[in-house]
Amino acid sequence: MVQAYHAVPVSVEYEDADNGRPTDHEGSALLGSGTSGVGIAKSEVQKEGHATLTSSVGNLANTIIGSGMLTFPRALASSGIIPGMLTCAFCGAVSAFSLYLLSTCGRHAPHRRSSFFAIATLTFPRAAVFFDAAIAIKCFGVSISYLIIIKSLLPNVVASLYHDLSSPDTNPPAWALSGRIWISLVMVVLVPLSYLRRLDSLRHTSYIALFSCAYLVLIVVLCYFRPIEGMTPPGEVHLIKFTPSFLSTFPIQVFAFTCAQNLFPIYNELKSNSQKRMNIVIGTAIGSTTLTYEIIAVFGYLTFGSHVSANIIAMYPSTSLFIAVGQLAIAILVIFSYPLQVHPCRNCLDKVFHFESANDKLDDEAVADEHVAGELTPLKHTLLTAAVVGGGFTIAYFVDNLEMVLSFVGATGSTTISFILPGLLYWKLTKDDPNKNKLLNLSALVLAGYGSLILVFCLSYNIYNVVHPAIGNGLA
């Protein structure tokens, strides 16, 4: 049996973001049977956010940017410059709209306790635990893919740097070319970062990761104006030319903006999290990443034309120290993006496991209060983090390629988190409100429908690749 929760308005005093003066904010609290609304309100008021706009933008942008940006020049090659740039901007705009809907939904949850589970409990209570399970699986899969990328990339980086910084006749030691050794060493850094409770604590690593991304942009732009010896000669360049590979590159553009799993933690931790300030965070993060993708896509495509591959950094000769450092920058970017997947995965698993615990003890008021507050006990925090990090490391250590499995996880999980849930949750919360914005309410439903179409298309495409791998690879 699912425990029912309802929204109770709570008057909360907090500092207004625009003028710095205390104002009355009409919030909501999810209350289980036997929970005191006044008690929850007082405890929540004391827990204000401390994250700045800069750190919030940095963490959200780092959640967005990943290895997918390396494929954007290939996306332009599949459709031409103009359609490729338009689809990139479209995907960014749709992602920004979905994040806006989620941020407005967050105001219906307990003060500083917004989450997919909290909002789903208000809208689709029987499905709330399944939503969190889907998010956890998706984030866990992405975290594994990051470790596999690190495992395959760092040995190449070492070989390139060793070639450039030492005698050409000498080779690096065998251990330095072992991917398994490298991910074992990297875990020394990642484990402490993964145990951090607040997303804002990862702001410094996000800044480093974004600097690494800027270095890649520098490589792509400079190598267009001053090509390096040994580069592949450019092929044809078209303003508009659709090819069959567009079917595989468009979903990559769609999923390159996935970051909704960290929207609620950022919302909860942002100081004075008014909608205006959240709009600044969302707009800046999406706008900057869209601009980054566009620059990499255009200059990468203009440099190599129709000969561009699905990994733009691999197109440049690693015999150049400038390029070798760029490969290291990509590795750093992926390394510091890993904790941003562990954080939401752990939180969602807590909701999934606590859901069962709460249902077994519906009469236990303490359990209900903990369920509302959403705090992880030190023991649960330790165990869940160890399970996520340890399980992901074990899989990545022994497996070299999870591409097919992750493609199915991405097609279902990313689409659900990024489009279907934001649209459905906002639509459900506002559909009976007499003062609702009818156009916005309808647009939210359209977003959910768009996500459903993307899900069906990507699933169908993945199944087709499994059944007809030769044809599928040809399209890609």
TrEMBL record:
Keywords: Amino-acid transport, Membrane, Transmembrane, Transmembrane helix, Transport, Vacuole
Biased composition (Basic and acidic residues): 18-27
Domain of life: Eukaryota
Membrane disposition: Multi-pass membrane protein
A matching Pfam family: Aa_trans
Keyword Transport carried by entry: yes
GO MF terms held by the record: L-arginine transmembrane transporter activity; L-glutamate transmembrane transporter activity; L-histidine transmembrane transporter activity; L-lysine transmembrane transporter activity; L-serine transmembrane transporter activity; L-tyrosine transmembrane transporter activity
Membrane-crossing residue ranges in chain numbering: 81-102, 123-154, 174-195, 207-227, 247-267, 279-302, 314-336, 405-427, 439-464
Stored InterPro entries: AA_transpt_TM (IPR013057)
Keyword set includes Membrane: yes
Subcellular location: Vacuole membrane
A Gene Ontology term for the protein's cellular component: fungal-type vacuole membrane
Family: Belongs to the amino acid/polyamine transporter 2 family.
Protein name: Vacuolar amino acid transporter 5
